[in-house]
């Protein structure tokens, strides 16, 4: 641009006869004093010339772009309000040789062109263009810094960041799914617990009812004992009747009266026999019904239901074995399918319980029927007693008729035989009643056994379900962590590939801008070098501090491993308390050290960002510029520092993952120790303490995971900020390019207009 504006100096001058030729400025405009505005000349001002002077040639013509004058207005910011007397200043010598004077016949312009501010306006425009170019160069250097920082990033770090980003996305999705599945599982567990409580309540109700039925059965047994006592009394009465027969033989009564009485007795005996027959038929029907019902109950309870339960238990055991086999290869859909199967099995168990309740109700109804039958038998026995009392009275009346009784001895023997038959029938009824009672007791006992077995099966199912849920949660946690890490890594790799593509585009763009770097002059190089060297020394000191911190973290990790071994030894010796407290304190120290290291890393990143900003500001000040070699050395040093920091960050990230894995292995070992302690017949205090320590380690592991997630989120935010900053820089670069193109077009138009 200096060479371009140099063409405006040393223009051909007109000569007068009195003055010698000298180089002058060709004015391009005039500043008015009142309005402080600059007016561009489109032609020379018309003046009164003598007749002797030759006609003047039109040296100024309108510019190609008539709107170009707006760029040189007072509001455009290119010119200030400075007013100087340029006539007192010496003329500025041209930097190059003046343009060859083509038109020797041009008049002398020294008479009407004064030393106005046209030359300073050209210099100001040149200064403005130079400032814009330096600013553009600063942006280019800034882009180059970003490109090289991304180029020097290791390939494994790019892959890790891609995988971390994808794993982070999957982590969030899997956490949401896990929360939803945990809520569903909690609802299922609550429903199963409520169902278990309902079943236990029903079982308690059944037990109460069975106790009540036992009390009723005891009452029935007492009544049966009373019946047996009455039967014994009848037998004693019959014995007395035998004794009275001998006395009756000695009596002599009239046969007619005895015959009449015997006829009456025979009719009464016939009625009694009919009643006995009816009772016997009813008893037979009841016995048949009871036998059928008991057979049905036995078949239902002992065969079908037991077989169903055995079949269901076999199926459940097979399913449990299949589930345990599948737990090694986690499949969420299979787990949900197994949970649905367990729900179906629980529903089947509910149906079985309902069936058992229905059967129990049937047994209850049968017991009620038995009670009614026993009451009916009691009434029949009372009637029989009344008839026997009548017979006794008749026998007493027969004592007075011995003679008549002697003739009716044969009839008495018949009645005695009939009485024996009645007694045998009564004994048979009593025996059947005892059989029914024993069968009822056996059915009751079998029913209690079935209920106990059902309750045991339901409890085992609930335990299996709880264990499956715990295993499922563990598998989901492990699988979600692995899938989230893989997803974060894949996503990070994709983003880094996209950034590499953008970096390649920026390289192509910035390679075009390197040509302009040779045009800049080096000013205040020592000051810049001193500032950069001081910043680099500070960065190196921070890096050494970070390396020391990493070494200290490694020593802490080694101490943690030693403490872990000591903790295992103390767990074997059952000396857990002091060791676990020390372990928790060391873990807290390690966590605090890791947090301090992360803070230092963030501080280093901020220092690097400050260094980059300072370098960019130094480049954009327009007071100095750097040579290519020095800038490349500085960039190499900054890139090397960035690489070291990125490697340190990656190392700390891997150390954090290793720490989390050590915590997980420690938790697994503690869980194994807890299981061993639970299996061993020892006191419950040790078990509670081990569980408390396990809970503490789990809390610490959760804290470590949270810190790890926070660091991952921080790195992700930094990457997104870099991407947004790069996009903004792209936009600003495009704007700068467009501004440069406009300025170049304006300068070319000015040069063309001047040459014309």
From TrEMBL:
Q: Which residues form a coiled coil?
A: 157-621, 646-753
Q: Where is the composition biased (Polar residues)?
A: 32-54
Question: Where is the stretch described as Disordered?
Answer: 1-61, 89-127
- Source domain of life is Eukaryota
Keywords assigned by UniProt? Coiled coil
The record's annotation in PANTHER family points to: CENTROSOMAL PROTEIN 2, CENTROSOME-ASSOCIATED PROTEIN CEP250 ISOFORM X1
Protein's name according to its UniProt entry = Uncharacterized protein
């Amino acid at each position: 641009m200096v060479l371009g504006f140099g063409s405006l100096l040393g223009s051909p001058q007109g000569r007068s006869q009195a003055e010698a030729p000298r180089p002058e400025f060709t004015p391009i405009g005039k500043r008015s004093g009142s309005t402080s505005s600059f007016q561009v000349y489109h032609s020379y001002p018309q003046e009164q010339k003598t007749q002797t002077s030759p006609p003047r040639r039109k040296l100024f013509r309108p510019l190609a772009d008539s709107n170009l004058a707006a760029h040189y207005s007072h509001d455009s910011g290119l010119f200030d309000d400075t007013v100087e007397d340029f006539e007192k200043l010496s003329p500025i010598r041209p930097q190059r040789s003046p343009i060859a004077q083509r038109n020797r016949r041009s008049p002398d312009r020294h008479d009407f062109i004064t030393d106005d501010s046209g030359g300073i306006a050209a210099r100001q425009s040149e200064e403005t263009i130079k400032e814009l170019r330096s600013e553009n160069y600063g942006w280019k250097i800034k882009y180059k810094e970003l490109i090289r920082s991304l180029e020097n990033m290791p390939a494994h770090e790019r892959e890790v960041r891609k995988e971390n980003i994808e794993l982070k996305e999957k982590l969030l999705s899997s956490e949401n799914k896990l929360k939803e599945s945990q809520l569903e599982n909690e609802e299922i567990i609550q429903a199963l617990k409520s169902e278990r409580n309902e079943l236990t309540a029903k079982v308690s109700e059944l037990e109460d009812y069975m106790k009540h039925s036992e009390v009723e059965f005891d009452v029935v047994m007492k009544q049966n004992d009373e019946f047996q006592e009455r039967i014994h009394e009848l037998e004693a009465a019959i014995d007395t009747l035998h004794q009275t027969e001998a006395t009756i033989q000695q009596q002599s009564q009239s046969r007619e009266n005895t015959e009449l009485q015997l006829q009456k007795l025979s009719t009464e005996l016939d009625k009694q026999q009919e009643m006995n027959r009816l009772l016997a038929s009813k008893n037979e029907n009841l016995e048949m019904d009871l036998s059928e019902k008991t057979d049905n109950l036995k078949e239902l309870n002992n065969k079908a239901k037991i077989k169903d339960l055995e079949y269901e238990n076999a199926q459940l055991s097979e399913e449990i074995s299949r589930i345990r086999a599948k737990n090694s290869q986690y499949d969420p859909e299979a787990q949900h399918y197994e949970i649905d199967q367990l729900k179906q099995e629980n529903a089947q168990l509910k149906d079985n319980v309902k069936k058992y309740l229905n059967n129990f109700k049937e047994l209850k109804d049968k017991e009620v029927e038995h009670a009614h039958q026993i009451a009916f038998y009691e009434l029949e026995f009372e009637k029989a007693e009344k008839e026997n009392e009548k017979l006794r009275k008749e026998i007493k009346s027969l004592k007075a008729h011995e003679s008549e009784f002697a003739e009716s001895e044969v009839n008495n023997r018949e009645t005695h035989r009939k009485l024996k038959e009645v007694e045998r029938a009564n004994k048979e009824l009593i025996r059947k009643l005892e059989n029914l009672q024993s069968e009822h007791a056996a059915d009751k006992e079998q029913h209690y056994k079935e209920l106990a077995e059902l309750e045991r099966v339901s409890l085992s199912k609930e335990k299996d379900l709880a264990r499956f849920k715990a295993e499922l949660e563990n598998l989901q946690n492990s699988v979600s962590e692995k899938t989230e890490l893989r997803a974060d890594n894949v996503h990070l790799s994709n983003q880094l590939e996209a950034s590499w593509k953008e970096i390649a585009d920026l390289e192509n763009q910035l390679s075009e801008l390197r040509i302009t770097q040779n045009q800049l002059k080096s000013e205040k190089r020592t000051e810049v070098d001193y500032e950069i060297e001081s910043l680099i020394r500070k960065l190196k000191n921070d890096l050494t501090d970070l390396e020391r911190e990493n070494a200290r973290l490694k020593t802490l990790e080694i101490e943690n491993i030693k403490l872990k071994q000591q903790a295992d030894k103390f767990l074997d010796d059952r000396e857990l308390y002091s060791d676990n407290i020390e372990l928790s304190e060391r873990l807290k120290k390690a966590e605090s050290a890791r947090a301090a290291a992360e803070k230092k890393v963030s501080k280093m990143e901020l220092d690097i960002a400050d260094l980059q900003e300072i370098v960019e500001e130094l480049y954009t000040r327009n007071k100095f510029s750097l040579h290519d070699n020095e800038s490349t050395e500085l960039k190499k040093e900054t890139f090397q520092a960035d690489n070291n920091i990125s490697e340190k960050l990656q190392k700390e990230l891997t150390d954090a993952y290793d720490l989390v894995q050590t915590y997980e292995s420690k938790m697994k070992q503690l869980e194994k120790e807890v299981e061993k302690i639970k299996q061993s017949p020892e006191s419950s205090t040790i078990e509670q303490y081990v569980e408390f320590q396990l809970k503490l380690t789990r809390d610490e592991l959760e804290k470590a995971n949270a810190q790890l997630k926070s660091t991952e989120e921080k790195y992700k935010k930094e990457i997104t900020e870099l991407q947004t900053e790069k996009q903004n820089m792209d936009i600003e670069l495009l704007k700068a390019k467009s501004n440069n193109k406009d300025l170049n077009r304006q300068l070319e138009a000015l040069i063309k207009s001047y040459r014309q």
